[in-house]
Amino acid sequence: MSRTDISVVICVYTEERWEDILAAVSSVRRQSHPALETLLVVDHNAMLLDRLDKQYQQAGSAVRVMANAGPPGLSAGRNTGIAAARGSVVAFLDDDAVAERDWLRHFAARYTDPRVMAVGGRTVPAWASGRRPSWFPAEFDWVVGCTYKGCPQGTVRVRNVFGGNASFRRTAFDVAGGFATGIGRDGDRHPLGCEETELCIRLTRADPDAVLLIDDRAVIHHKVPAPRERFAYFRARAYAEGLSKARVARSVGTDKGLESERRYTTRVLPAGAAAGLRDALFGHLGGVGRACAIVAGLVAAASGYLVGTVAALRHGPVSMEAELPALAEGGPGDSARPHPDVPRGDS
After folding, report:
1. Is 190 helix (H, G, I), strand (E, B) or coil?
2. Are 173 and 206 within 8 A, CB to CB?
3. Alpha helix (H) ranges present in 95-230?
4. CATH class label, 6-311
5. CA distance 89 to 332
6. Exposed (0-12), middle (13-18) or buried (19+): which is 254, by Cβ within 10 Å?
7. Does the pLDDT at position 316 exceed 80?
8. What phi and psi, each to the nearest 5 degrees, are found at residue 106?
9. pTM reported for the whole predicted model
10. pLDDT at 309 (0 to 100)
11. Alpha-carbon gap, residue 97 to 10, rounded angstroms
């Protein structure tokens, strides 16, 4: 069995996360399945670029520091990393997350089947306050970049993986192009998302036999800072997700763009609200807060989707560039075709 070479891309943008960045890189360097390389892509921040370059310039370091070659934002940063990567698989880790020791090992195990094109994992919140706010519903953990209640468990086939804890076969980008730069997050200024959803849908359209998996044993722990534990951020992020979903639906069609969201809104959220009210009846007052937050989050996301849809009808869809920058030749890749026998889930 040949070894799967994995390049890990970590996109960074602010010195305020210096310790988090170092912790993320350290977690990659401790992997039981060693990464071929770690690529730190700095998003238009010359001071951070210079500081990281000095931090990792020692001889023999497997950490490469580079500047985002595209417009500001996470998507262009990821595309820069993809273009420079030498591995047959490219994995992505958030700059404020740490990976468990077997994270890459579980990814690599899935790529022994050449029919798999992408593998994602499970992201666990690390709350700044030390515990989940009593009102914060687990069904909305995607608001803070984590795996939410209602996601499929085990190893399952999904529509899309989640970008902060995901990997792609290098040849997937040859087939579908890179991340669309007109859709995703731009630092903390624009808390949009869904760029990985759009890419995954585009990938399976370009190659209908492509298989995308979630293996929930591939675990990372994602830091949730205090401001993101507040209801104001919760509501703003839910609204932004609605805007993003409108852009995705406009780009790929509502059938695929909202395929998983229909199940989420008609089954997962009602069940979560009912559970919250049931808890309240037994004296757990946080249940009322969770039920109310679920309703508020759904209304905010629906409002964002409506606004985004109307804006697209008036002004046309946002231009989304998905070409990779011509930085370097891609690393060794291999072909990928039909799908393995795994359960089907929604993501």
Report:
1. strand
2. no
3. 103-110, 170-176, 195-206
4. alpha beta
5. 9
6. middle
7. no
8. -70, -35
9. 0.86
10. 87
11. 10
Structure tokens at 281: 């009846």
CA 256 to chain centre: 18
Q: Could you tell me if 140 and 69 are in contact, meaning their C-beta atoms sit under 8 angstroms apart?
A: no
Report the distance separating Cα 157 and Cα 214, nearest Å.
6
- Report d(CA 124, CA 78) in Å as an integer: 22
Instruction: Report, as an integer, the average pLDDT of 251-257.
Output: 58
DSSP three-state, residue 40: strand
pLDDT digit string, tens, across residues 120-165: 999 999 999 999 999 999 999 999 999 999 998 999 999 999 989 9
| Listed residue (54, 81, 61, 160) closest to 117, CA to CA | 160
- pLDDT tens for each residue of 290-307: 999 999 999 999 999 999
Residue type, 259: E
- Tokens coding 105: 């090992």
The domain locations on the chain are: 6-311
Token match 């989940």: residue?
132
